[in-house]
Amino acid sequence: MEGKQTIMRRSALAAVAAIGSVSLVLAGCSKADDDKDNGDKSKGAGANAATTGVVNASTQTGGTVTYEYSDVPDSFDPGNTYYAYMYNFSRLYARPLMTFNPAPGEKGNELVPDLAAGPGVPGDGGKTWTYKLRPGLKYEDGTPITAKDVKYAVERSNFARDVLSLGPNYFQQFLVGGDKYKGPYKDKNAKGLASIETPDDTTVVFHLNRAFQEFDYLVATPQTAPVPQAKDTGVDYVKKIVSSGSYKFESYEEGKQVVLVRNENWDAKTDPLRKQYPDKIVIKLKVNAETIDQDVMAGAAIDLGGTGVQAATQAKVVNSSDLKASTDNTYGGRLVYLAINTKVAPFDNIECRKAVQYAIDKVSVQTAEGGPIRGDIATTVLPPDIPGFEKSDVYATDGNKGDVAKAQEHLKACGKTTISTNISARSDRPQEIDAATAIIDSLKKAGINASLKQYPSGKYFTDAVGVPAFNKKQNIGLHMMQWGSDWPSGYGFLQQILHGDAIGESGNTNLSQLDNADVNSLLEKAIGTEDGAERNSLYTQIDKKTMEEAALVPLTYFKVLLYRPSNFTNLTSTAAFSGQYDYLNIGTTKK
């Protein structure tokens, strides 16, 4: 059965490659009639309609919105997650200080206050940031939300890495004393980290060890969503999360299903962003990827992961003008790349890394991912829709098809004639597996023999490739990776995959384990630079330096291809969450 499934998938990919360059037509948005059951109102809106507007806009209430996912998320805990779709979804029950405007396209990159009453007030050249909370905020149990709850949320999510290892570690790097603070579970001082002050119940002040000019973006992460210390149970908090948003957890069945219902203590007067359209929100987990596509096309579910349709479905929709009219195809600040682990021999030698750079036929990888419709061939770390991008190609080959002779030349300079290693990919992502298989075929021609190791998405960073010791033990020198920007800037894209301080014992996303002094210092200089144009210029320099170090192989500038499910309202693709639909206010036409 496994062999047959692979053959079917590759046949579909071949068909996709033939029509992958089909252009999707841009069209306007539609509006649902709130007075009756409308059925499929997304039909007729046109291809890419949700990238520029809101499709099936409606204030209709009632019914159930169903999401499906092929694996399990890293965590529903807002302080212990690092997938874009969970940043997106968690806002239903976890309100950060700032968030992204629930609007289509580039408008979705705009920051707006959420738990905070307004943007942060900077001081000391960007080393101090002060936020005031909105008045009248309450948890699901009716108790007030205070500044101390925000402080505690940041402490638990960034400094208790032995308990909550997922999520970025920006706060740990930038808060004064963050390098020594052991987190709230071990700290004996009831006042916690001194560099986060709460002078009153509605004020929180962050004191940084260096200037951070994009700090409002940082507090838009779910790590600033409040957590009442008395209700925190560490890693088990995910089983009984206390909601600060418009919905709360009715049930949590680990690895199976999660159900959210309206939070009766949420007050629209304190929240201009959220609505409460559906009665219930259901998330079904570990659903076969092809089944998800079928349910999405039937208008029965939304793909929670938001990575787009599978190969067979793609071939079907791009060949049908009717089906194509219900698709949204857009960039989302994402790069598909191969991380080369600089700490796993022989890739600790730059010449061996360069051999990999030249060996890969990127056209075959692009075809495996679904053709040009799923992304242009990449040659830089920064995608074209992230500030700091500048076109270049350090390891250019004829037609982007690789250069075996050049690869073998660098292999020889590395003191090798052949290499044996392993390459990791996520077991529940068929296109990632196919891309890894194409890479294996390319590398073999140059004498680099790589075997595929597969791990589920939910454990990819916690138990497998995000654990440096695991990679070394398993001889995993190459890692399939797809990365989306934490926020729309060069720093938001680069820091957690390139800075040496981002490397962690678990939950690590700097899979190359790059710890280059020049890259580190340029990142530090950039985030402290007030002038935006100068910052972007520094991001360009970081990109070029990283490519010179051959720490990763850019494969494609990922484009998501979403099928717009009927029977759901307020669908809009947002740049802030990698082109996914904004999950904040989706409703349904079905009672």
Structure description:
The chain is of the alpha+beta class and 591 residues long. Helices cover 28% and strands 18% of the residues. The chain contains 17 helices and 19 strands. It has helices at 2-19, 84-89, 147-159, 170-174, 215-218, 289-297, 311-318, 321-324, 350-359, 362-369, 404-413, 430-445, 457-464, 468-474, 490-498, 517-527, 532-548; strands at residues 64-68, 98-100, 111-113, 121-123, 128-132, 196-200, 203-207, 247-253, 257-262, 280-284, 302-303, 327-340, 375-377, 419-426, 448-455, 476-484, 552-563, 568-569, 587-588. The strands form 5 sheets. Strands 13-17-12-16-14-15 form a 6-stranded mixed beta sheet. The chain has a 5-stranded mixed beta sheet with strand order 8-9-10-1-11, with helices on one face. A 4-stranded antiparallel beta sheet has the order 4-5-7-6, covered by helices on one side. Strand 4 and strand 5 form a beta hairpin. The longest helix is centred in the first third of the chain and has 18 residues, at 2-19. Mean pLDDT is 91; it is low at 1-43.
